[in-house]
Every structure is written in structure tokens, then in C-alpha cells.
Amino acid sequence: MNRKLKKYNLKYEYLKLEEEDTIESFDEYVSDFEFYFEKYYKKPKKGTPTAKERHIWVNEETGEVRHEAPSMSFEDMAEDNKRVEREKSEKKKKRLVEIKNRPDRIKKLYKKVAIATHPDKGGTESEFQRVSNAFNELDLATLLNFAGKYDVEYDFDDDDEDILLKNLKKLEESISHKKSTLAWYWGTGTRDDRLDVLRTIKKQTGWDVEESDLPPDLKPKKDEQILLEDKKSLDNKK
């Protein structure tokens, strides 16, 4: 394996580990965020950004998005089902064409790696499936990583580098997206950061988070409580 490919492989392995850790932490932070604040988002006040959002209905087969679930007669439903099947068939054909048009070099690499990772050849079912998915998604980074693990020879060239860089960028974007969410900010921030999250929740839902819903570290301290009570008293006099 040449040095350039070795460096890309190391970067890929780092990003995969980072993605796994990020997903694990992200799921934990989302669960914690929803535990405290889900009820505020379920019933936002009128006039807030969240209240303006309408229910979204998504047809999972076609990706079609509507603001209301479709109301159809049996005849319309039958026609719609036929349309869905046609679109699925066309999508499948398009996918097959894309796979067929994969560069020959990558097709050969896939065959070698698929053989090496096949359960009958010493691989595992999980690895074999990952290799198959990687080929279908043109995930060269994963294919090359398995090639390195199983000593499958491959001559890396400039065209491969373009594909590989896109694969790595996709991983980086996946990680960055999760780390830019309010739930992540809530889970990783300082006390001041978490107080900022509470202010954002108020902007989005219109509700002040009740003290009883706050975790212990965010409950007002004694001096803060006195100031809050004084402020409420002044507001009431106005």
C-alpha cells in the first residue's frame, strides 16, 4: 500500500471511530433533551416558529412530501399504488445502471474484496454486507480499507483520489451535522451554554422552561432566585 493511500486509510479509520462515538453520544444527548423539553415542543404557543410548522406527511416509497396525509378513494389508492410501483421500478433500474457504470477498476476491486470477506473464505457476514453496500454507494474509502485489512492489492490513482475525498467529506459532514444540533449543545455545553439552550427553547416554543423541569445544575441559585422573585414582583406591579 502506497503512503498516500495509507494516510487516507488512517483518516478513514479515525473518522469512522469518530462517527461511531458521535452517534453514541448524540443519541444520549437527544434522549436527555427530549426527556426535559419534548412537552414544550409538542404544544408551542401561537406565533412562535415551531407553531408555524405544519404536520409533514412523507411517502417513504417515493420521497413525496405533503403537508397533510392524502385522502383517497379506493380507485385513487389503486392508481397511486401503481404509480409508486412504477417509480420504484424506475428507481431500481436507474440504480442498476449506476452500478453497471462503476469504473472497471472499482468493479475488480469489489470482486476481490468481496471474495476476501466472504464468510466461506474467512470473513464475516457483517463485513461481506458492508463491502456490498460500499460498492453500491460508491464508497471507495470502505472498499480500500477492507482491501488493506485483507492484503488485496490495488493501484491507487488520481481518479480514485477524487472519489475517496468525497467519501471522507461525507463522513465529516455527518459528524459535523450532529455536533451542530441544539441537543449536542445541551449535552456538551457549560452551564452558561445550557442556559442559552433554554433561551433558544423559549424563542422556538414560546414557553419558559419551568424550574421543576430543570436538571439540578440549572436550578437557580439562592441569590438568582431572589432576583427572579424581585423581577416577577416588579412585573406584576406594572
Strand content: under 5%
Largest sheet, strands/sense/barrel? 2 strands, antiparallel
Number of helices: 10
Q: What is the topology, as strand order, of the major beta sheet?
A: 1-2
Distance between the termini: 76 Å
The value of Rg in angstroms is: 26 Å
Structural class: mainly alpha
Write a structural description:
- There is one protein chain.
- By secondary structure, the protein is an all-alpha fold.
- It is built from ten helices and two strands; from the N terminus they run ααββαααααααα.
- It starts with a helix and ends with a helix.
Topology (SSEs and partners):
Layout: H1 3-42, H2 49-52, E1 57-58, E2 65-66, H3 74-100, H4 104-117, H5 125-136, H6 140-149, H7 158-179, H8 182-188, H9 191-205, H10 222-237
Antiparallel strand pairs: 1-2
In short:
The protein has 238 residues and is mainly α.
What are the defining features of this structure?
2 strands; 2 domains; 238 residues; two-stranded antiparallel ribbon; 10 helices; extended; mainly alpha
